[in-house]
Design brief:
Elements lengths: L10 E4 L2 E4 L10 H5 L2 E9 L2 E2 L2 H14 L8 H15 L4 E9 L14 E8 L8 H4 L1 E10 L16 H12 L4 E6 L4 E4 L3 E6 L2 E5 L8 H12 L4 E4 L11 E6 L3 E8 L2 E2 L4 H14 L2
Parallel strand pairs: 7-8, 7-14, 11-12
Antiparallel strand pairs: 1-2, 1-6, 3-4, 3-5, 5-6, 8-9, 10-11, 10-13, 13-14, 14-15
Helix pairs in contact: 2-3
Amino acid sequence: MAGGYDDRDGKIWMDGKLVEWRDAKVHILTHALHYASSVFEGERCYNGKIFKSVEHSERLHKSANLLDFQIPYSVEDLEAAKYAVLEANGWDNAYVRALAWRGAGQDMGVASRNNPVRVAVAAWEWGNYYGDAKMKGAKLDISKWRRPDPKTIPSEAKAAGLYMICTMSKHAAEDKGCSDALMMDYRGYVAEATGANVFFVKNGEVHTPKPDCFLNGITRQTVIGMLKEKGITVHERHIEPVELAGFEQCWLTGTAAEVTPVGQIGDFTFEVGALTRDIAESYEKLVRS
């Protein structure tokens, strides 16, 4: 699909009906544009089936509740909308983006209880999020920004405003020739990349940060389950940055990232080893089964 994301042929579902892609617009005084009152999901459709689709729809509702608003469409409604978008655009393999936000209405300040909640579902054909790094291993910068204390943000929500420092971190990483950036948390522990969770391997065992201040990704949970089924020991724990020197392999997980090997984080290097390749291949088989 060519053209900018605002200028394409196709259909987008908005507030209960399919509209032309170019007509899927919001007013400049939309509350979410000013105050970040927006939540979203990223999903992938493989061979006509959206992987973990219902879990994503349920999480969208949870995220909205954490931001103090209700989505006016049920999980079943969202499921129907997602598949309607795929059918309308003729796609069997695509990335799906469902989002909900406080729109323009009677309120134009921090409070917005009188404004309508808007909902949309869009989709597009999308290849590897990290390009050829999917095979060679991504190169990551180390961000100066940290994931915040969960007492300051609803860290269990997939909320648009929480990605502001992620955008800044990824831009800084790209300026250095990197694919992404690794972020620490507010305590200084290893947290995640800007839009993906991170895993490390040492002596045949897997270590991954404990998601107590960042999103416990659906792909992350899936991969942990796969590792345990393979008999691999998984440690979910706080990881100190100095430990990076002792890990042998590393990979990222996320709906967009899928399972992407990491070859370098800052000055630390990792091999794209057998376990990394095995879990990437196993994930590919699972999502297409």
